[in-house]
Amino acid sequence: MMAFQKARQPLSLSQVATAAGIDRSAAQRIVHSLQKLDVIARDPADRGYLPGLRILDMTHDLLRLNPMLQRANPIMLELRRRVHERVDLSLFDDVRVVYAVRMPSKHEIFSATLVGHAVPTYCTAGGVAILSKLPDERIADIVGRSDLTPFTPHTIQSLAEVMGEVKATRERGHSVLCRQLLYNEVAIGAAILDAEGNPVGAIHVAGSLQEWTADSFSESFGPLVENAARTVSERR
């Protein structure tokens, strides 16, 4: 199933085999078995294979059974009502964070509305907020294993830059990053902690630099994001 992560269109059997690192006959057997379970399906236009509807069933189960996401939902709704900007919750997954709750603003591209979308930890508001709660050695390890290919001319590209953002986040209480994934975007984030104080996710708010400066966005919404993340975090 990992073969579909970076696909931009349905995959042929040969493409599935190449992406999965297996031979075509093995791919054919696996795809056939997964088709029987509705985990993989043929594209309606017969252009190849797609994830099947059972994936949505499993996604629904993950979202509805996760205690943290259950706690977060009313808090996220209230935060979205107050900020009138895009509000997201992402889950920490080593070198990446994965969007689990997305509440779009008025103008969003399609990908910005999808749960399950993953972005790098090292250069995103949610990711840097999470990193700020980790030891420096762990941060260096995560950055060292990350793909540092920039998304914009302003994307962070070194450990020194990441540590600079982490230091500022620790002092401020929330992250503030501009033009990292999208050229005109400003985003702030605060980490969600488990009962032992380990970061497990983050709440973040994103807006447009055509409407906000980084400072005004941080001053307006930083305390709200921090409070939301604290409320969702587990207590000892």
Automatic annotation (TrEMBL):
Single GO BP term: negative regulation of DNA-templated transcription
Keyword Transcription regulation: yes
A single GO molecular function term of this UniProt record: DNA-binding transcription factor activity
Residue span, HTH iclR-type domain: 1-53
Pfam families assigned to the protein according to its UniProt record, in alphabetical order: HTH_IclR, IclR_C
Entries under InterPro entries matching the protein: GAF-like_dom_sf, HTH_MetabolicPath_Reg, Tscrpt_reg_IclR_C, Tscrpt_reg_IclR_N, WH-like_DNA-bd_sf, WH_DNA-bd_sf
Keywords noted in UniProt: DNA-binding, Transcription, Transcription regulation
Superkingdom per UniProt: Bacteria
Stretches assigned to the IclR-ED domain: 54-236
PANTHER family, A to Z: HELIX-TURN-HELIX TRANSCRIPTIONAL REGULATOR, ICLR FAMILY (PTHR30136), HTH-TYPE TRANSCRIPTIONAL REPRESSOR ALLR (PTHR30136:SF24)
Protein name: Bacterial transcriptional regulator family protein
Top-level taxonomy: Bacteria, Pseudomonadati, Pseudomonadota, Alphaproteobacteria, Hyphomicrobiales
